[in-house]
């Protein structure tokens, strides 16, 4: 009887200690663990494993030193853990936002790329439309298939016409003023370009004292060489007339001045160069 009463008193003493410690913010995990450890072992009794009872009684005595309140170091680490968890959550949120923005940025880049490609093509079309005759311009703006003939880097037959002013440097020095020479050369080239375009040629560029032009078979047709020759002849005739009408712009009139023309015909390769579809060519 006395031995049973002592055991009950020990259990009651331990329970009181646990309750007092838990009220002082003792870690609930340890409290629950040891509390369950010293509860009446009904399970052991029902299973016949009563030999554990004496061991549990011994363990119950050693529970008290293990139950301690949270010290300052634990509070510090727990606070750091909470802060770090909050920081990680904030970073994850920011990452999600940036990931979404990255996807949106990727879509915007693709859209810009498409717009730039369309813009570039439209500029090429507009540039080319100013280098051919009115009839060709109307077809160019309406037909995608016709436009592609100019921009494909493929071989084609073409006549190439190069025109420049002979003794152009000397002629420039004989002009009364730079303005007078600029007026003479600009009006001359505008008219020669019109002549070339009227003959189904493609004006490539103004070279400073002349013009480079092309007569591809897919545009000028089978008579491309004829149109090139006719353009050269008309340009030469116009130069003589224009120079005679511009005598007042020069201090001295040169007798051996005129146009030099060069014509080549054969297989060429269209090479895209800036906005000019025939900026470079290879002739065979």
What is the element layout, followed by pairings?
Blueprint: H1 2-23, H2 28-37, H3 42-47, H4 53-61, H5 72-129, H6 134-142, H7 144-151, E1 155-165, H8 168-174, H9 178-198, E2 202-206, E3 210-216, H10 217-220, H11 224-245, E4 259-269, E5 271-273, E6 276-280
Antiparallel strand pairs: 1-3, 1-4, 2-3, 5-6
Please sum up the structure shown:
With 284 residues, the chain is of the alpha+beta class. It folds into two domains: 2-70; 134-280, Alpha-Beta Plaits.
The largest sheet is: 4 strands, antiparallel
Give the overall silhouette: elongated
Using the coordinates shown, work out and report the CATH topology of the largest domain.
Alpha-Beta Plaits
Over all CA atoms, what is the radius of gyration?
49 Å
Name the average pLDDT. Answer: 75
Helix content: 55-70%
- Any idea what the CATH superfamily of the largest domain is called? Nucleotide cyclase, GGDEF domain
Instruction: Name the CATH class of the largest domain.
Output: Alpha Beta
Based on the structure, what is the oligomeric state of the protein chains? Answer: single chain
Q: Count all strands and give the number.
A: 6
Low-confidence runs: 22-27, 37-67, 273-284
Report the span from N to C terminus: 126 Å
Tally of discrete structural domains: 2
Strand percent estimate: 5-15%
- Structural class, please? alpha+beta
SSE arrangement, N to C? HHHHHHHEHHEEHHEEE
Read across the widest sheet, the strand sequence of neighbours is: 2-3-1-4
Can you count the helices?
A: 11
């Amino acid at each position: 009887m006395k031995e049973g009463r002592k055991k009950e008193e020990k259990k009651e003493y331990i329970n009181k200690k646990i309750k007092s410690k838990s009220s002082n913010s003792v870690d609930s995990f340890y409290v629950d663990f040891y509390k369950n450890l010293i509860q009446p072992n009904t399970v052991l009794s029902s299973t016949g494993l009563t030999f554990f009872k004496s061991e549990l009684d011994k363990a119950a005595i050693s529970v008290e030193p293990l139950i301690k309140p949270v010290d300052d170091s634990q509070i510090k680490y727990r606070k750091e853990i909470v802060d770090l968890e909050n920081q990680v959550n904030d970073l994850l949120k920011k990452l999600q936002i940036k990931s979404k923005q990255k996807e949106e940025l990727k879509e915007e880049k693709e859209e810009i790329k498409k717009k730039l490609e369309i813009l570039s093509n439209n500029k090429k079309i507009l540039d080319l439309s100013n280098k051919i005759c009115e009839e060709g311009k109307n077809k160019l703006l309406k037909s995608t298939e016709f436009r592609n003939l100019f921009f494909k880097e493929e071989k084609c037959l073409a006549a190439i016409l190069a025109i420049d002013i002979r003794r152009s440097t000397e002629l420039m020095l004989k002009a009364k003023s730079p303005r007078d020479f600029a007026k003479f050369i600009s009006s001359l080239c505008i008219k020669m370009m019109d002549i070339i375009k009227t003959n189904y040629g493609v004006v490539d560029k103004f070279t400073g004292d002349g013009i480079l032009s092309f007569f591809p078979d897919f545009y000028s047709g089978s008579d491309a060489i004829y149109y090139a020759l006719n353009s050269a002849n008309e340009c030469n005739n116009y130069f003589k007339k224009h120079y005679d009408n511009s005598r007042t712009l020069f201090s001295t009139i040169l007798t051996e001045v005129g146009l030099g023309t060069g014509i080549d015909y054969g297989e060429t390769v269209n090479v895209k160069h800036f906005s000019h579809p025939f900026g470079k060519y290879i002739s065979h």
